[in-house]
Amino acid sequence: xxxxxxxxxxxxxxxxxxxxxxxxxxxxxxxxxxxxxxxxxxxxxxxxxxxxxxxxxxxxxxxxxxxxxxxxxxxxxxxxxxxxxxxxxxxxxxxxxxxxxxxxxxxxxxxxxxxxxxxxxxxxxxxxxxxxxxxxxxxxxxxxxxxxxxxxxxxxxxxxxxxxxxxxxxxxxxxxxxxxxxxxxxxxxxxxxxxxxxxxxxxxxxxxxxxxxxxxxxxxxxxxxxxxxxxxxxxxxxxxxxxxxxxxxxxxxxxxxxxxxxxxxxxxxxxxxxxxxxxxxxxxxxxxxxxxxxxxx
Length: 297
Fold this sequence. Notes:
Rossmann fold
């Protein structure tokens, strides 16, 4: 037996004993569509996520954020349980698009869970969550088989952006939905939004030049502002890969405090590359004609 999210009408949302895994399909986090950007609310549409953690409070918050972004979320409390869930899903031809492991609540068990998943031939992305992000912890997570490590925060935007980037990259690889060289918006499948995306793409060269100018002039305050502007604009237009890269550059800036630090230089180089490869072209066929537009933010 393991925990299942109980969101039955009339009950207070919470965790109760159930059979693993417990689905969170259709769960709402309580936020109205206007409280999250358009790109975020459709970022993980029809994606299956396995959340591996041992902390009920974090489990509810993270799962709610993922469900708000369109994902169906199952739970596992340890590595053995996670492997069982993954094998069961693969046998049913319903493989998980992403596995999230909360390293803060599991510690060394979390790293071992990632190792076990890779040994069980899980080829999808694994994202690690932690209260602290350091180069040492990042190295341990990558060595265990994780694809990325991010900081647990109250704001769900970074979690959703990174998750969507990993999921969409894997789906593109698996199904050939997009040219891996292109950086596209989560909103590109909606023809009504194509002109808006084209206008945004045309502004990216100027935006990235503002970032590079602040870096060259050693203006720490302006660089922080320009990175934040890129992050916010990319989020509102559904370019979650660019958003995640801008967040990484901000984290490097906060950590190193030096504009010529190699980590920051590399992060800005990555951001520049993504902006140069951005396109407004759809990465997948348009949705059916009766599909509603995502809610505006």
